[in-house]
Write a structure and sequence with these properties.
Helix content of chain A: 55-70%
Shape of chain B: elongated
Distance between the termini of chain A: 26 Å
Distance between the termini of chain B: 185 Å
Oligomer: heterodimer
Number of helices of chain B: 22
Number of strands of chain B: 4
Largest interface: A-B, 38 and 41 residues
Strand content of chain A: under 5%
Structural class of chain B: mainly alpha
Number of helices of chain A: 6
Chain lengths: 95, 568
């Protein structure tokens, strides 16, 4: 999971991620790190600053193919979406 | 004679005078004649000039018209980018202008362009100011409206609060959890900020919207971007309509049932559980049939065909190789799903069937990724655990199941939910979703960063806790079993059919399952603790209460002067 360190996570975040999530999520997040990475970058690029909280609690969503992930985000007005996600990162679960 | 001479002289003098007068008159007449001639000449000149003036005026009018047209054309052509149009060339020709005039117009165009730019800039500035002022006014109006609404709402809430206080004093307080929830969400701090943000309500509404997409007016997949606030508004609207419809339907059904009971007839409100509401998903068998048909079509499977040529043999070998390599097609299009083994794909199908069998609602495909990681046993065991904690597994959505699956330690999360921040866990379960409850709990847990190392927190019990850490399988001898059942019997006073998964002692919610397991481990380990210490340790181990609460709880169940070496 060290690739997360390059995306603004620290060791505590990684440790929390491992404590919160089931083993199979952690395994898949390592196996498909390029997908996770591109999805995290998609959020960072549009200005979502709560991406770490989102990943810690909803890591499974970050295993989705990047095209699909972006298509979900693009259903909404980006500025409106970013505001809402920054206020409530758990909203990602319902998009 | 003298008289005649005098008369003659007078006559001569008069004639002279007359001659002089005539001569003068002639001069005058001649002068006048000359003047008249001059006037006539002047008049003639004037007539000529008048004609010229008329001609010139006409010319000027024509030129003015042409100039106006030219001005219009210049303006149009400035808008359209210049003077290169045929119309302008035509205009220049009609004015018989030379290159100097064209240069003049070029310079004019430049000046007009410059001025137009200045005017446009000024207009833009004014428009911006206008928009700013309009926006400010709109915002102020909105703020005023919100303030008015808040004031009205606050007055209503104040009245309700007074009513609740009076009811509470009179011992007749009757208030539902939903009312409390709606009341609490309106509370603000001294700066006017909402104390309990309705962020989770937003997620709930979005989820409602997604689950009721067939009822809402908007299609999220139609390619149009829309604010979440619109989605929420639409969901609210549908929710309200649905509520009204449901109430009307309920009223109608109740009336019909009452009427039917009176008349002793069949109401016709039976629900047919055999109805198939799911789309048919192509099965692996379907795929295999298609493949075998193709296989038959090339004749290889035909018993009458005898391979005789090398070409036929090569073709057959290719087909055999293809048949060996054929994989079960992935059920989903994601990369993660595509990487799954045939066995895993079969298991995902089995999970889907299981969730269908227990009437889990929602879009299985949307959350499919989680099922390529979890096993069917994981799903079943998590559902059992959820049941133990009072979750109604007949009302779950696929998102709820996903939440149950993805957390590392579901029991820990549910214990945390029971004991931490959920004053009325049962009410929370009934009024919200499992997804919301678990998300909220994970949120709290990640904020707390698991800083509940009880071995360090409760120093005098650190040795006891380190023993419990090593116990996995618990076997109770008769004496231990007696102590175990006696302790639980004492505790049973603090839980009822409503809070069956939590002991509620001194207003504190404690996970029944966690405490029962801990009591069992403690008595099996022969710790020989006093009853109050036993209870203290059982509640403290992997729990979230502070020492003060733990002492109060233990003292309530087993009153004693001292607990765990700590003076109360």
């Amino acid at each position: 999971m060290t690739y997360l360190l390059e995306l603004g996570f620290d060791q505590n975040d990684i440790s929390t991620f491992q404590k919160l999530n089931n083993d199979f999520i952690i395994e898949k997040a390592s196996e498909f790190k390029d997908i996770v990475e591109s999805n995290l970058k998609s959020l960072i690029e549009i200005g979502v600053n709560t991406y770490k909280e989102m990943f810690l609690r909803h890591a499974d969503l970050f295993l989705m193919d990047n095209e699909m992930f972006k298509a979900i985000l693009e259903k909404y007005e980006i500025s409106d979406l970013v505001t809402k996600l920054n206020r409530n990162p758990d909203l990602i679960e319902q998009l | 004679m003298a008289l005649i001479d005098a008369l003659e002289e007078n006559k001569i003098r008069i004639v002279k005078q007359i001659s002089n007068l005539i001569s003068n008159d002639n001069s005058i007449i001649l002068s006048l004649k000359e003047q008249i001639t001059n006037y006539e000449n002047d008049l003639e000149d004037k007539d000529k000039n008048l004609d010229e003036v008329i001609t010139l005026t006409s010319d000027l009018e024509q030129n003015k018209k042409l100039l106006l047209e030219g001005q219009k054309l210049i303006a149009d052509h400035i808008k359209n980018g210049g003077f290169n149009s045929p119309e302008f060339e035509q205009l220049l020709n009609s004015l018989e202008v030379n290159n100097d005039v064209k240069s003049f117009y070029d310079s004019l165009e430049e000046k007009i362009n410059l001025r137009l730019t200045e005017i446009n800039d000024e207009l833009a500035t004014l428009n911006n100011k206008n928009e700013t002022i309009t926006e400010t006014i709109r915002r102020l109006k909105d703020m005023l409206s919100v303030a008015k609404t808040s004031l009205t709402s606050a007055e209503v809430d104040q009245a309700k609060l007074r009513e609740y206080i009076n009811q509470s004093r009179a011992g007749i307080l009757n208030i539902t959890p939903r009312t409390i929830e709606s009341f609490v969400k309106k509370l603000t701090d001294e700066n006017g900020a909402i104390l309990f943000k309705e962020t989770m309500l937003t997620t709930e509404i979005i989820m409602f919207y997604k689950n009721h997409a067939h009822l809402t007016k908007m299609d999220l997949d139609d390619g149009k971007k829309r604010p979440i606030s619109d989605v929420i508004a639409s969901a609210y609207s549908t929710l309200e309509e649905e509520k009204v419809n449901a109430e009307e339907k309920e009223d109608n059904e109740l009336s019909a049932i009452a009427e039917a009971e009176e008349k002793n007839i069949d109401t016709g409100f039976d629900i047919n559980l055999d109805d198939d509401f799911n789309e048919t998903i192509p099965s692996i068998e379907d795929f295999s049939e298609d493949f075998m048909k193709e296989f038959d079509d090339v004749g290889f499977n035909n018993a009458n065909l005898t391979p005789t040529t090398p070409e036929v043999e090569t073709k057959q070998e290719e087909i055999v190789q293809e048949l060996d390599e054929v994989k079960v097609p992935p059920l989903h299009s994601s990369r993660l799903a595509a990487s799954a083994s045939p066995e895993k794909i079969e298991e995902v199908k089995a999970i889907h069937e299981y969730l269908d069998s227990i009437s889990v609602t929602g879009d299985f495909d949307k959350d499919h990724i989680i099922y390529y990681g979890a096993t069917l046993d994981d799903v079943k065991s998590r559902m059992e655990t959820a049941k133990e904690y009072g979750v109604d597994t007949n009302k779950l959505s696929t998102t709820d199941v996903k939440m149950l699956l993805k957390v590392r330690d579901l029991k820990e999360v549910l214990d945390y939910a029971v004991e931490h921040g959920n004053e009325d866990y049962m009410a929370a379960l009934n009024s919200t979703t499992v997804t919301k409850m678990i998300t909220t709990t994970l949120n709290q847990m990640s904020s707390d960063s698991f800083n509940n190392d009880n071995a360090n927190k409760y120093g005098s019990f650190s040795e006891v806790f380190s023993t419990l850490d090593t116990i996995n399988d618990v076997t109770l001898d008769p004496d231990s079993y007696k102590l175990y059942t006696e302790t639980l019997e004492e505790l049973n006073h603090y839980c009822d059919s409503i809070t069956r998964y939590a002991y509620v002692i001194n207003g504190e919610y404690i996970s029944k399952q966690r405490v029962e397991e801990n009591v069992k481990k403690l008595v099996a380990a022969k710790q020989n603790l006093a009853e109050s210490d036993l209870l203290f340790a059982a509640i403290a181990y992997n729990g979230t209460k502070n020492e003060k609460d733990l002492v109060a709880i233990a003292d309530k169940v087993f009153p004693s002067p001292q607990i765990g070496g700590m003076v109360r």
